[in-house]
Amino acid sequence: MAPLNIKQGSTQHSAYDLRDPNSDVIEQHTLALVVDNESGVLARVIGLFSGRGYNIDSLTVAEVDHTGHRSRITIVTRGTPAVIEQIKAQLARLVPVHEVHDLTVEGPSVQRELALFKVSGKGEARIEALRLAEIFRAKVVDSTLESFVFEITGTPEKIDALADLMRPLGLREMARTGVAALSRGI
């Protein structure tokens, strides 16, 4: 009997997998786009999402090729497998889009996010906030007698975990950059 050939990112399943491949399971995907760095491109990409009712969980944009005038847009979105495929196909058809990569299905990737937390407190709460920051490898980037601003870099889950622990200690404000991601390897 010939071995079952399953490509990474394929929707084929093992004969023993009884799940419906057309199910309505919502998945989170990280998409990386290379686009022309010109006015209106981001609006066109975002317009595709808003016009069809797709949500964006995270969005980062920056120029990555100064001579070629190209930018990289990293989008984290959710949807059924069919919706994710539709999003990728529609993005690939936009004229200023040169590449569309689904980092979730293309193999291992590295994802990081930067966040700033403003935590106010006195006494024991202040000491506990410093202790937690040290455990999570967050840096103090600003300090007053009544508050700290911590900087943390990590996965979105790591940032969420620190935020959950800092809330009862006096988390007052948070700013997040959104996910930056690259595929691993060559």
From TrEMBL:
It catalyses: 2 pyruvate + H(+) = (2S)-2-acetolactate + CO2. It is an enzyme of class 2 (transferase). The keyword Aminoacyl-tRNA synthetase does not apply. Keywords: Amino-acid biosynthesis, Branched-chain amino acid biosynthesis, Transferase. Gene3D superfamilies: 3.30.70.260, ACT-like. Chain A, domain 2. Its EC number is 2.2.1.6. The keyword Transcription does not apply. Residues 30-105 form the ACT domain. One of its GO terms (biological process) is isoleucine biosynthetic process. NCBIfam families: acolac_sm, PRK11895.1. Belongs to the acetolactate synthase small subunit family. Catalyzes the conversion of 2 pyruvate molecules into acetolactate in the first common step of the biosynthetic pathway of the branched-amino acids such as leucine, isoleucine, and valine. This is Acetolactate synthase small subunit.
